Amino acid sequence: MTSLGLDSYVVTDSFFGVPYIDEDEQRSEPVEHRYIHGGFEGTSTRFALCYPPAARWQGRLFQPLEGANAGHENVNTGPLGQVTGGLEMIFRMGGYAVESNMGHIGDVMDPKAGPDPTIYGYRAAAESARFAKFVAAQIYGAPTAYAYVYGGSGGARRSPLCLAYAPDVWDAALPYMGDAQDGDYGDLRLLRNGTPNFSSMFNVQRVLGDKIHDVIDAMWPGGSGDPFAGLNTHQREELANVYRIGYPRGDESFIAQPMGQMWLWSSMATRLQADYPEYWENFWTRPGHVGFDQPELVRDDLIELDTTVRRVLYAKDLLEDPTLQTAELGQVRALAALFAAMNNMWHIPMAVQLDEVPTGYILGAGVELTSGAAAGRKLYVLNGHRDVLLVDSDGEAANLRFTGVEPGDRIRVDNHAFLAYCYYYRHHLLPWEPEYDFLRVDGQPLYQQYELPEMSPFMGVKHTGRIEGKLLWVHHTHDSSLWPPQGLGFKANIEREYGVELARTKFRLRWTENAEHVPPNMAASVPGRANTTYLVDYQPIIEQSLADLIDWVENGVEPVDTEYDYRDGAIVLPATAKERRGIQPVVSVTANGGSRAEVAVGEAVTLSAHAETPPGAGTIIGLRWDFDGQGSFPRTEDLDGSQAEVTVTTTHAYDAPGTYFATALVESHRDGDVAATSRRIPNLASARIIVR
């Protein structure tokens, strides 16, 4: 390996001390590369740099930013990094990889930086990238020609900040499924916003109870299309509100099984209550709030339980203990595995089993240790069933969870704060978002308003539309964590700064249909239907979009955006590929000519799939059928990759009564390569078959 000299490196940002390297080695997994790990003295900033062999490098830097609060520098090199391509994708695109912990270790602030959002929003990433370029010049003997920053979720919140506030480092950014609401621009104060939309979602899950499954059924293919049927007045109002605010239609199964949304509550609940106490008290004690005016709407869900710890549980316990392998604990196991892998927390007890079962609504409930070595630690329930609770929190509590807790320690479970949060959206209207106008009359809020809280400094500063480079924003139409309207904010920001015509030289917006916040295999499973029959893996779309971003920056080839309409809180895409544009194929499926067919056992049903690619997006290279909703896709159609539009018909008979969703999974490729192993752009559609 080339010997590295660091003495000549001078930091651009004086906050950071001199760089150091504590690991420098050749690695063969997951792909051959030189791995360099280090940080900057006097700070919590750490970085991991991965350089491919010289023959694979084409002069580019790629910097993936971690989601959520960040705090880790080895996500992209681990299993979770493979979800969005990992090192192999970066090397395939001619780049080396830079990853930073964004200036903090886990959820603990840098002692030197304190709550400075500029460090966590972009400055730690920028200095890490500058140093990576310095190292690359020694390894390859040439300067880095182009630099790209990208990321999903929390990484999508921060990547535009990197491009805007450190224009000397990056040429372009690709945020996907992020948020940059209109109004978040040009201000370095802390971001304010307590994500009130999630509170509406949680309230729908709570007040509907088992009726949420009727809503899911109504909105799936071949359903009635009326999600309000059978609901009482309060249930109808709350469901209507969540739609108005922007919850994606057709994705209601994720209301029944919240995942990352509950993490966000747990990461800010302690701070919201401590820094903004008025609302949490008034909800229960003052007129104008449900907790005081209509206690019957929350009374049956209240939990106030003082009990003891039976045992603490690690993710491995939840995955392997025979007594915990019940269907009811399925999502607890899935979330534990996800967060343990994402944050390298296999060695941290993330859950607890109690000596008593809480009665009431357990999601989001506060869990406080009241005796033992961990007394005073406050945690919140991510998910649970009966006496098993999976938790998270903020700061040091998030890093420790149940570390130091012993059987017999006293513990208090109380959900007053979370039940108040279920109506939080009414009392914390976002003034720049029209989705909340239904809660105003003549501009005046219907309900008493409270100060909008500042979000965690880990999320960075407010956005700006003032950028020097290019930005391609990718958002999903079925994202239950960052809802479709949240994909519109940056477009509004940049058009306000530059005007529509000039903005198009800097910005494009692309929509992905049928994609969630996580790939199908990481999402909560729904009864009777595999996730892969209604959700697509968006990684190929991210890779193709990165390739298009490169072409835009380096060759001046403008990327195609997606046509859409926005109404009643919903993103509506045109029905045909020609009208819709973008890069994703458009797919439709019928059963006996309609979205729903009713047949007898053994009676053949005729299934037809139509797929077409937008202009310039290549051709259809694959079409597979899944007939029973189990996700096995046993039938593959023979396609040669020459057609931009195909119609395929097949028949299938069912040997048992039931409800089935026949699904066609279609893939397209820019070059029509049927043997391609990457950038196979997916989409799908289903029809419902009722077998009597």
Automatic annotation (TrEMBL):
Database matches in Gene3D superfamilies: Immunoglobulins
Protein name: PKD domain protein
GO terms for biological process, alphabetical: carbohydrate metabolic process
SUPFAM superfamilies linked: PKD domain
Transmembrane stretches, start-end: none
